[in-house]
Amino acid sequence: MNKPAHILLVEDNRMDVELTLDAFHEAKLLNTIHVASNGQEALDYLFGRGRYADRKAFPRPNLVLLDLKLPGIDGFEVLRQIKSTPVLKRLPVVILTSSKDEGDRALSYDRGANSYLVKPVSFDGFMGVVRQIEGYWLSLNVAPPESEA
Amino acid sequence: MNQEQSGQITAGHRVWLYSLCAAMVLMVAFSSGAINTQSRTVRVGVYQNEPKIFMDENGHASGFFIQLLEKIAAQEGWTLVYVPCEWAACLQDLTDGQIDLMPDMAYSTERDAVYDFHKIPVIESWSRVYASPGSQINKLSDLDGKRIALLNGSIQQTVFQQLMDGLGYKVTLVPVDSYDQAFALAGNGSADAAISNQLFGDYFYQKYGLVKTTIDFEPAELYYATAKGRNSDLLAAIDRDLGKWIPDPNSPYYTTLGNWTPKEPYRLPGYVIWVIGGIAGLLLAAAGMIYLLRRQVKTRTNYLEQANMELQKSEQRYQTLARISPVGIFRTDPNGATTYVNPKWCAISGLSADQALGDGWLEAVHPEDREKLSQGWQESTHHHQASYSDYRFVRPDGSLAWVMGQAMPELNNDNQIIGYVGTITDITERKQAEDAIHRHMNQLKALNKTALQLQKLEPAQILANEIIKSLEMILDYTYSAVLLIDESGERLIPFAVSTQGQDDDFVAKDKKYIESQDTRLGKGITGWVAQTGLNVRLGDVRQDERYYALRENIRSELCVPLKVEKQIIGVINIESDQPDAFSQTDESVLETVAAQVSIAIQNAQLHEKIQQYAVELEQRVQERTAQLQAANKELESFSYSVSHDLRAPLRAISGFSEIIARRHRLSLNEEGRHYVDNIVQASERMGHLIDDLLTYARLGRTGVRREPVSLASLVGEISRNMQSHLAEIHGTLSVAENLPAVTGDQTLLSQVFTNLLENAFIYHKPDVLPLVTLTFYNEDKYVVIKVSDNGIGIPLEYQEKIFNMFQRLHSEEEYPGTGIGLATVRKSVELLGGSVWVESKVGAGSTFFVRLPKE
């Protein structure tokens, strides 16, 4: 059992955020979830810029749950930046999107997404996914070593 | 010196002769004694050696020597007494003094010792070979191997033998006792030749039928001889006389000699009679001949007269023929100068007979043909053969007459040319016909070429030029033009005009000029043709009221319409400054050209239209494509929207209502609980619908891949994914082994079979464990997959409808489903080039067939 992880949830839809958080809570998962509601925020958080400069308050996450459709800088761009920044690229990024579109999948994997999950429609399904994410990525998966930076 | 033996005389003869001579001697002795002592009595020995010396039948001495001696005796006044004796006896008598003189004595030195000879030889003698005619003995060498008859024991024989031996010739000697015998033998063939002295031989050879040769030997001189020392006066007298006579050809010597060297055959007795008879006969014959000749002359004269008459008649006939002959006849002298022409010749050539004479006729021959003609003539002269040629006369009025001429040289008996005779046949009509045919042939050839040219699709301007070029090849004209009816249907505008050798500018100006004229339909010849669609061919335009002069100096015009499928689109018009320039043939030819040109123009016009359309079409297509692409793009974004923007709120509805339904269930009353359950359900349904719709909408948008797909692995994966579900519902899926590979899109195919297999398990009978089998069979280029279930089955009337969008046979409560699945299956399968259908029976299950292409 890993130490409680920090998850960065990048999602612009308020309701989806609520549902996700509810699901985590319902599943009694003890992770700390930070939410960024657009790409810029996400990047600021990841890079520790602006108001997220305080790494104590805003620690670097162990997992990123990334929606593709974001206002402004979209999920693909965030993904690209993560994966092309030495200090961030080991970070597991799970795409969490409602799109089954093949093109989106292709691009995501091309950009180095570690996983691609489609948001289920039902809440039960949602809870199931959340549990599995936690189970796999935070328990089963061996985290990458810290990057030197 | 040889010794000659006398000829055979029988003993009886001898006695008789001897007695007779003795009597005569006595008489002569008496008479002579009585008359005078002045005449010298000479006793002469006579032996038989005809013709030199002999006693004849009557007992008279004869022969050359005797007759000569008699002449001498007459001269000298001697009295001759002949003493017949044999040769040897004569010689003895001479020695004894019984006789005084012995004639025919060959001189030899031995004899000279015993006898005396006078000085001048009487005659020369030699041995000569007389041959039988068939013996072929001509020269000495011919004697080799022959049988020769000659006097036995004679010196002749010895000498001859010696001669033959000396020459190395082998001869068979046939010894005989007399020359006569020898000659007889040679004459009857018992010997090949006989030898005698030439005096005998030449005198008698013909009698025996022998041939005289020139093989002579042993010459000797013959004399009269006396006994030694006696009668020398005789010898002197002989010499005296011979000395006078021998040089004188008219002397008694030669007269005598002539008696004894005859040339004529020995035919004394019958000769005269024959001669007389001959002469008489000749006279008769002559008379007869004269009579015959006279008759012959008469006959010949008659014949000649008749022949002359015939000739005259023939001449007349010839004249008549020549006059009425349908061919021209002429004669020339050896140099080719005309000597005669018949009336027809004059008619053909246009010359009078006088004008034609000499070289006048050649002047009338067309200058271009003269060379050829004289060449042909030369050849004819060389080879003594007829010459043939076609040539033209230029008549005085300028017209041409084509003739076929032939000339033969006339030869005399010595094969020399004495002139020429020939004919000319008027072939003007034939030539004209030939010319017409030639022209027509050329036209047809040009037409053929034209047809090929005009079949090519070319822009209008090039086509116009091609047409004009073709026309120029085919017909002779001054101007030509192709006029087309314009869009208004009222005017003719020039499409192509003849260049007249000028450049394009000129042509353009020309066209403008034409356009500027009144070219309404109906106006002028061209207008009339364009209106009526009928040909017009005029030999003289000025005589036709329709004519509307566009140009000066036109006399002939030929105009034919251009028609396409019975509709007049224009005309071809050609004009000439010559009258009657165009024939019926030309008109037909132009019609053919017009047909080709019409098609060509139509083709060109159609082609242009097509090109226009093609351009327009291209534009429209591009526009439409752009539209479609825009539409497509819209759809894409639409799908995207749906997938994201619709789903999100749906998730919220679904999610929160579920939370409420679960967590806050107890806060709700019965109704509240029920309704919130409804919301949850509805949201789920909406979610499915959106998913299925999206799937359907996206089918084929990203292109349908065509690659080999292993059905075995594809179905295997689907099967694995279904395992947990199958376990829940206690269903069994049986998949055939060795599923083949097909050509298609992996994603689509996966969707199709997922759909079908899921369906197969959904529509199960409530109390029956679902069993689904997936099998296949092969068709030629396809494979057909069968998905069979033991479910509820599908009524017949719906077996096609179920593939429609949203078509469901059951409510959501009965069986889940959006009504989109089968529509998606069908669209997917069809995109893959296959087909799908169902066979089913209510209550007995269904089998879905999917046909997919192998390649």
Can you tell me about this structure?
The complex is a heterodimer of chains A (149) and B (855). Chain A is an alpha/beta fold and 149 residues long. In chain A, 40% of the residues lie in helices and 15% in strands. Chain A has a five-stranded parallel beta sheet with strand order 2-1-3-4-5, sandwiched between helices. The model of chain A has no long low-confidence stretch (mean pLDDT 86). In chain B, strand 14 and strand 15 form a beta hairpin. Chain B is of the alpha+beta class and 855 residues long. Helix content of chain B is 49%, strand content 22%. In chain B, the strands form seven sheets. In chain B, strands 5, 6, 7, 8, 9, 10 and 11 form a seven-stranded mixed beta sheet that branches. Chain B is elongated, with a radius of gyration of 77 Å. Classes of the chains: A alpha/beta (149), B alpha+beta (855).
Q: Rg of chain B, please?
A: 77 Å
Cα-to-Cα separation, first versus last residue of chain A: 26 Å
Helix percentage of chain B? 40-55%
Largest sheet of chain A: 5 strands, parallel
> Which regions of chain B have little confidence, pLDDT < 50, spanning 5+ residues?
1-7, 33-37
Q: What's the tally of helices of chain B?
A: 23
Mean pLDDT of chain A: 86
- Counting DSSP E segments of at least 2 residues, the number of strands of chain B comes to 28
Largest interface: A-B, 22 and 23 residues
How is the quaternary structure best described?
heterodimer
Fraction of residues in β-strands of chain A: 15-25%
Provide the residue-averaged pLDDT of chain B: 83
Helix content class of chain A:
25-40%
Structure at a glance:
The complex is a heterodimer of chains A (149) and B (855). Chain A is of the alpha/beta class and 149 residues long. Helices cover 40% and strands 15% of the residues of chain A.
